Amino acid sequence: MSKKIILLLASILSVGTFAATIEIGFENEQYDDKGTNNYNRSDVFMPYISGSFNPLDGTKLKIDFKYMYQDQYGKERAEGTNARFKTQRDRFEMFASGYSYKNGDFAFNPKVGFRYEQWSINDNSSSSQTKRNLSLRFFPDMNYKITSTTNLYLSGFTGPLFTETKQESRKDSGYKKGDLDTNYYYGDWYQEVQLIGVRQTLPNKDSIWASLYNEYKYLEHSAEYMRWQLRGGYNWGATDKLAINPFIRYDLHYEEKGKESSSLSGSNNGKTRDKDETRIGTTFSYKFDPTLTLVGEVYWQSAKNISFDGKKSDDKDRMFYKLGLRKAF
């Protein structure tokens, strides 16, 4: 963990703020090797610390924060000429909420904030590498109560993304192979929004939900991504202490369009490829007491792997595990 991040977290939890919750845990992604594809070189381990606090006593203002470190340990499997730089990343995010507008059965509960990420750079490699990016995010969360047990909702975020890259960078009109300069991009955009969702509360207090999800990402001189996905799940209160929430995500359409400069030889500009994914898993939580909770998630995901020229490789299968301990104050 970098010294700057440690100082920032210390200031967040300094005198004058009241920490509502603190959570410490890890996430782990493991990929099926699939023979010569070497997918398991993408395996990553990500410890994190997150929490929330109310900086102004007597107000509804709430600050959520999270720091995560990513270590791509899968690259340690590479040998000899196949050895590549191992990705190491620091991620910090912070969001503010508390304002609420209500009109009858309609409620608007926005949230604003940012995510900052910084990667270690291999100066000995000419491969394209991102050094850092800043994602500004606005969450226009809304809810409409149809009946006492049925709700419509919108949730997610949208906002600009600012990126600094090193090495060969993205392939704009000034691209030169072997150029190790720094480039900056200010025209990127990223959003993930459940545009329409419905949640039904059952007589036993469990709930079932489904939503239509959209993801859009635009990266200057790189690629444009558009995804439409169906999501659904069941929130099950197994006991007074144990909650299990199985879910599924199924892509209706997930496409990547190349955005490299058309002036370059071999440019992927205008070419498209499918990237459809399916994810099945569950989140869970167990309350040891009113202030201490074990939280976790596990899922399996399968993603298509197709080149812009239409060449198909084995699907990229991932297992994801998360485990954390949350303390309320």
UniProtKB/TrEMBL annotation:
InterPro entries: Autotransporte_beta_dom_sf (IPR036709), Bact_OM_Channel_sf (IPR053713). It comes from Cetobacterium somerae ATCC BAA-474. Gene3D superfamilies: monomeric porin ompg (2.40.160.40). This is Porin. Keywords: Signal. Coiled coil: none annotated. The keyword Transport does not apply. Residues 1-19 form the signal peptide. The keyword S-adenosyl-L-methionine does not apply.
